[in-house]
């Protein structure tokens, strides 16, 4: 075990509750900041004890949160020469005891360490064997003797479980582990996992889509289970099996699924998770599941192509090419699906079009196994910058003659707004995908009519129409173009509205304040920080901001992002319904982006930002109107020199130190006079921005309408 636990800059920022940039500033500005003792030049590590001592001496750390203390102990317990995940397995076993046998912990907790060191491991093993069975418990590698650090961790976890429950506590630890190992581990998000499970007929709402011929529990398999996100989405009422190349992750997933199973369910639970390479050494030979859910590893070159040339999983003897490991996983999943059962996989979009995989795609279509290809928006699942595809397959029965494929482009229908994965509108995306799939699948199972094509969204395509030289299954290539959103009347309205805006902007005497030259004078200044200390204003920072999503039906309050403020547009997102609103703008407030940009907005009653919840990277200044005019303050903050003097620069961004901004000391009556002029300038700038946006919309709508033939230029 390491004698001196080490932490990265990200972990230091989490300890102090600041951003990583703040840690970089501390290192640069404070010569007594602890020196790196490991890591790399781009990601150094620091001695934890020295970091904690420095943070406390600077008043930046009062008390280490329980979760941080627990995470620190798990890192301390990690033995470089032993299984790297052993501390998390110990933690999971302890939380399983609290989940299923809380009275056992109550009896053990007051024992002295000398007795608890042997009694607790025995209790953990009894609980694990009762819930998981003896063979599965053996894979956890639980020690027979607990050291003092392990006992300290157990007590901390018990305190955390009182606050968050055993299941919630383990989820937090696994999240921390995933964050610390993001390059090696990219779990499937719960929303994406729920969508796959719902498509396959598992999880909430599965009763609406029964699995024909089943009398017992539905069996679900994930041959690349990782931390078990897809099996977790299938629900505790299913019999779940899985496999992962890393035995540690298979064991973590096993504990995670057990913790998410109600404690009243008697053991041993129907969980069968094993380790190994599923393509080369299948741990579940002969298993045919009702549902197979999988997000396989991508771009594997050494997946066993040469050794698996004559494998029975390849239909018609068509071997997946060496560079098409994803198609090998597709065929592996299909081979483990019972006739009539479903498989759903998350795959890179190139799998639908790479020429090397054409023969395998053609065989899947020709056999009727591939039923749907859904293009998801970027941010739906890792890698988050890629718009992944979701493939749905149904293993054909001998009498199944259905030969159509549903192609659905949800990436175009639900584009990800700025903010990436945090801005995917999962409810709307789920409705679009599930409604189309359920209608299509019902037609396939009952022989009813296929759902009508929806231009630009989805289309049911006959197999013969796809079997060409390329067999490209990219949905966007086969969908009929969506009808232009604007007809002739709408275009006329847009043209008229733009004309009104441009006419108003032309009246500069009305829009802009008249100015005259004045002699240069030196006015004393005061910083925003000094104004805050004197009670003239309050400073609020949004921090991570309110939890947001794309706006739509059922959304909560409007959510303002820093990009919205910089672009001068209305709030583009919304808060989750029922979530307490963190920081809300109200009339008299001044909004400033944390990354600078010479932008500040004074909120007035009824304007576009009144009542908006602040997202991340935003500051809110709340002046006392008797001492400080909001429009004057906002105008001064928009001045080029004001923000330049209070900005610090990183390699790619400029960050604004809000407290260093300087404001002239002026009587409030003079402030109001200047504030009125600043407001007229701000209104002029807003009108220009609106006119530019409306002009772009009009030009795009006219182009689309003329190109589609719905309108034509008048003579």
TrEMBL record:
Residues 537-585 are annotated as: Disordered. Keywords: DNA-binding, Restriction system. It holds the Pfam family N6_Mtase. InterPro entries: DNA_methylase_A-5, Restrct_endonuc_typeI_TRD_sf, SAM-dependent_MTases_sf, Type-I_RE_MTase_Subunit. Gene3D superfamilies: DNA methylase specificity domains, Vaccinia Virus protein VP39. Residues 169-418 form the DNA methylase adenine-specific domain. It comes from the Bacteria. The keyword DNA-binding applies. The keyword Acetylation does not apply. This is DNA methylase adenine-specific domain-containing protein.
